[in-house]
């Protein structure tokens, strides 16, 4: 369970993890501003999307410097490091691995010395093998992001008349899958979003506080808020942005066929983020209301499984008239421990993360609201813990439909064989986890709560209808794995054209 650098561990029980987040990307063009610190705080706001590694690339107009390492944003960067990272633009990335192992070599931003290009990516490509076959040089990392970086840099480097923008406009229509990209050469910041717009991506404007102002791109609007940028609009599916001293320019490299990820509303995005004009917290509360109407139960208290279960629990309580209570206390710091727990502690891992308030739940009939069930291990331990704390009944309500299919677009769900809902009925799952009853919100009600037309959403993990044709035999997190000769540990990579 510890990483190869010995610093961090994953969840206490790796077999009980829920759906893992995608990644967070951030970019800023702001001459005269402290772009390293803006990027740091932008990544801090996006930390929920990836906790394995973090990195920042900056340019001062002559060279690109990349600093990255394994760990949380606050562990990778300190005040002294940020003070030494100076420039007029930067990009940043926090990663959860969906292609390639969680090792330093695969941390982002990636960097191509020849071509002078740094790049960060949120999402997963589905034609990775095809793109890898086009690479000219050695593959230094085992990610689809590395392949994109090298292809863009090679194309621009091989012909001095070809700009990065020209290379991107030629390559991006041939890239299939989910990608919200932020990349840069020495003078220009670029952003691109796949034609389906599967992962969220937004554009913001920095105020002219220092006489300079600037532009920001980010995975979520919450990252704009934290750096004081004004939300301008979403980056459109199939759109390519160029930002430099001449301002912002937009081009389309493919027609938009919008299919935003429905699971962003359920779990992935921060509650204070807005997606497609709809606040995520508002959506989650509305899902809870609809869940209460669809699946009522006679109970004494509604309690959430923190954190993403809290808004739908509020909605369930409002619609049902059952009082809301905080019956579980969450320790927010357990998931990233330096100490590997003993087997005994690992078996009790749920208690290290969540602890019941016995005086609240003792002798009560509970409605327990959670965001999703993947394998069922966490819910099984949770129900057992609540009963041991004195709950007389435990009715589990889930604010998403059953997860039946894996995601190939940047969320590391279990395989179909491991998904409990793909193998057991709802009643069988209830019996397996020890609940008195179990119910899920319907797909139609979840979709309605987002206020986004169903035809503009990717709902594949729930209904198996993928917006892009996929050769499942060519997919897999470790499809590109091989021994890479890159040294371990943090680094500063420097380059310029």
Question: Can you characterise this structure?
Answer:
The model is unreliable at 1-17 and 481-497 (pLDDT under 50). An eight-stranded antiparallel sheet has the order 11-9-10-1-4-2-3-24. It contains 17 helices and 24 strands. The chain is of the alpha+beta class. It starts with 22 loop residues before the first strand and ends with a strand. Helix content is 27%, strand content 23%. The longest helix has 15 residues, at 144-158.
Radius of gyration: 23 Å
Structural class, from helix and strand content? Answer: alpha+beta
Percentage of residues in strands: 15-25%
What can be said about the biggest beta sheet?
8 strands, antiparallel
**DSSP strand count:** 24
What is the topology, as strand order, of the major beta sheet?
Answer: 11-9-10-1-4-2-3-24
Mean of residue pLDDT? 86
- Assign a percent range to the helix content: 25-40%
Unreliably modeled segments: 1-17, 481-497
Q: Topology of this structure?
A:
Elements: E1 23-29, H1 35-45, E2 53-59, E3 64-70, H2 73-76, H3 79-84, E4 89-95, E5 110-112, E6 117-122, H4 128-132, H5 144-158, H6 164-171, E7 180-184, E8 189-193, E9 202-206, E10 214-218, H7 221-226, E11 229-234, E12 239-244, E13 247-252, E14 260-261, H8 263-268, E15 274-275, E16 278-279, H9 280-294, E17 301-304, H10 310-320, E18 328-330, H11 343-347, H12 349-353, E19 354-356, H13 358-361, E20 365-370, H14 377-388, E21 393-398, H15 426-433, E22 437-440, H16 443-450, E23 457-458, H17 460-463, E24 491-495
Parallel strand pairs: 14-23, 17-20, 20-21, 21-22
Antiparallel strand pairs: 1-4, 1-10, 2-3, 2-4, 3-24, 5-6, 6-7, 7-8, 8-12, 9-10, 9-11, 12-13, 15-16, 18-19
Helix pairs in contact: 5-6, 9-10, 9-16
């Amino acid at each position: 369970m510890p990483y190869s650098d010995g610093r961090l561990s994953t969840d206490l029980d790796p077999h009980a993890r829920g759906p893992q987040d995608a990644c967070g990307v951030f970019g800023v063009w702001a001459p005269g501003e402290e772009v390293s610190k803006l990027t740091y705080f932008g990544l801090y706001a996006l930390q929920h999307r990836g906790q394995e590694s973090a990195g920042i690339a900056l340019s001062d107009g002559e060279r690109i410097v990349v600093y990255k390492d394994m760990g949380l944003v606050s562990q990778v960067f300190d005040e002294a490091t940020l003070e030494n990272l100076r420039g007029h633009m930067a990009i940043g990335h926090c990663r959860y691995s969906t292609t390639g192992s969680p090792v330093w070599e695969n941390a982002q931003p990636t960097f191509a010395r020849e071509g002078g290009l740094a790049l960060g990516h949120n999402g997963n490509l589905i034609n990775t093998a095809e793109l890898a076959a086009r690479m000219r040089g050695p593959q230094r990392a085992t990610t689809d992001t590395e392949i994109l970086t090298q292809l863009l840099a090679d194309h621009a480097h091989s012909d001095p008349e070809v700009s990065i923008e020209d290379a991107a406009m030629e390559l991006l229509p041939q890239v299939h899958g989910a990608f919200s990209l932020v990349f840069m050469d020495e003078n220009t910041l670029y952003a691109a979003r796949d034609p389906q717009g599967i992962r969220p991506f937004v554009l913001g404007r920095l105020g002219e506080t220092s006489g300079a102002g600037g532009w920001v791109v980010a995975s979520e609007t919450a990252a704009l808020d934290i750096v004081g940028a004004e939300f301008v609009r979403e980056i459109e599916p199939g759109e390519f942005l160029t930002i430099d001293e001449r301002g912002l320019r937009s081009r389309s490299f493919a027609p938009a066929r919008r299919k935003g990820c429905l699971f962003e509303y359920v779990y992935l995005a921060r509650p204070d983020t807005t997606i497609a004009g709809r606040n995520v917290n508002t959506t989650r509360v509305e899902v809870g209301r609809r869940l209460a109407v669809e699946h009522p139960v006679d109970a004494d208290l509604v309690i959430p499984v923190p954190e993403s279960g809290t808004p739908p629990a509020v909605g369930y309580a409002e619609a049902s008239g059952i009082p809301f209570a905080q019956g579980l206390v969450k320790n927010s710091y357990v998931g990233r421990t330096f100490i590997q727990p003993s087997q005994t502690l690992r078996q009790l891992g749920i208690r290290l993360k969540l602890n019941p308030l016995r005086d609240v739940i003792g002798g009560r009939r509970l409605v327990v609201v959670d965001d999703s069930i993947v394998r069922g291990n966490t819910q099984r331990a949770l129900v057992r813990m609540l009963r041991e704390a004195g709950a007389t009944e435990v009715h589990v309500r889930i604010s998403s439909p059953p997860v039946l299919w894996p995601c190939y677009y940047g969320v590391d769900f279990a395989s179909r064989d491991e998904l409990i809902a793909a193998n057991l009925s709802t009643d069988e799952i209830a019996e397996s986890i020890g609940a008195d009853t179990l119910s899920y919100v319907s797909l139609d009600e979840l979709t309605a709560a987002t206020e986004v037309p169903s035809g503009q959403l990717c709902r594949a993990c729930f209904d198996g209808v993928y917006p892009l044709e996929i050769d499942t035999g060519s997919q897999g997190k470790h499809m590109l794995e091989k021994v890479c000769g890159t040294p371990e540990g943090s680094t500063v990579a420097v380059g310029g054209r």
